[in-house]
Design goal:
It contains 14 helices and six strands. The protein is of the alpha/beta class and 335 residues long. The longest helix has 27 residues. The protein is elongated and about 75 Å long. The structure holds tryptophan (TRP).
């Protein structure tokens, strides 16, 4: 296994399209904290180049989101002295690797990628697909392999990307006749998808249905009070439905005392437990999660640019090395 000082290498990242929310926290941020605390060699990348592949006409959105994402990372407890936080565009070798890898991956292979297909539909690109967008899985293979990461914590929608990275690694190794790039493996997080507060399948910034890590106590309270529950649960005495009820999805994800959650579910199903009661329970569960994040954010007196500048310098050293090895494996001319 590829390691740095015997620690397995982890790489993951987020597109900076807005502040991070509880869905990120439940899905991947908590897991990163655990990996950081367990001593893995962690790289966390702000994937701005990937974000531009479908936001080229809205760079302001990405520009504004980058400091927010860094602020969120630090607020939840990522520690730049243990986790390298860096900016994708500040490591130009990633773009070079992408160009080289693109020659090994056919257009039809990219068009078959189920996540890309879903995203194309969602963005209504139809036939006007930016080539950068179609190729972002290749750039993601570059992100992963540049650091020789063996462990990639992701949600299940990212599995096709990991598969492609594995294929790229295989092809480069075959070309070089030796193992240059290790085979990356995905590490799926427990709760892969948290619903939006409106009951839609996914909490997202663009749908405006997420609770952000930077939300104030009042914002959290208002959002929980507006949460989608069971539309047929009219009177407190009515039996209520737990499945599809967003309050319970969030309680499942964030309340430590799962026995208590099971008890609430039982009483809700049986009738006699009101929505306001379960929402109040959820507000206090969320406050336990969010209070320390708020405190940490208030205590962080740092220059966000400086954090990513330093992290990107470290990341770049690794990527420069890998690019040289890949070029050598492929036998490309260099001066
Ligand atoms: N595609 C990921 C997302 O949308 C972000 C990402 C970019 C990423 N490069 C990566 C994740 C490499 C894991 C590994 O969230």
């Amino acid at each position: 296994m590829s390691t740095i000082n015997n620690a397995p290498i982890v790489l993951t990242g987020d597109r900076p399209t807005g502040p991070l929310h509880l869905g990120h926290y439940a899905g991947s941020l908590q897991q990163r904290l655990r990996l950081q605390d367990e001593g893995y060699r962690c790289f966390v990348m702000i994937a701005d180049m990937q974000a531009y592949t479908d936001n080229a006409d809205n760079t302001a959105k990405i520009r504004n989101a980058i400091p927010q994402v860094v602020s969120d990372y630090l607020a939840i407890g990522l520690d730049p002295s243990r986790t390298t936080i860096f900016l994708q565009s500040a490591v130009p070798e990633l773009a070079e690797l992408t160009m080289l890898y693109m020659n090994f991956i056919t257009v039809s292979r990219l068009e078959r990628n189920p996540t890309i297909r879903d995203e194309l539909k969602m963005r209504e690109f139809e036939r006007d697909i930016p080539s950068g967008f179609l190729c972002y899985p290749v750039s993601q293979a570059a992100d992963i392999t540049a650091f020789k990461a063996t462990c990639v914590p992701v949600g299940d929608d990212q599995l096709p990307m990991i598969e492609l990275a594995q294929e790229v690694a295989r092809k480069i190794n075959r070309a070089g006749g030796r193992e240059i790039l290790p085979t990356p493996k995905s590490l799926l997080s427990k709760v892969t998808r948290l619903p939006g507060i409106d009951g839609k399948a996914k909490a997202s910034k663009s749908l405006g249905n997420a609770i952000f890590l930077s939300d104030s106590q009042k914002e959290v309270k208002d959002k929980v009070m507006a949460m989608y529950t069971d539309p047929n649960h009219i009177r407190v005495s009515d039996p209520g439905q737990v499945e599809g009820n967003v309050v319970f999805s969030y309680l499942d994800a964030f309340e430590n005392d799962q026995e208590k959650v099971e008890d609430l579910k039982r009483r809700y199903r049986g009738g006699g437990l009101g929505d306001v009661t379960i929402k109040k329970e959820l507000i206090s569960s969320l406050e336990r999660v969010m209070m320390p994040i708020r405190d940490q954010r208030a205590a962080n007196d740092v220059d966000y640019k400086d954090i990513i500048r330093q992290g990107s310098k470290v990341a770049r050293e690794a990527a420069v090395q890998t690019l040289a090895e890949v070029k050598d494996a492929l036998g490309v001319f260099s001066i």
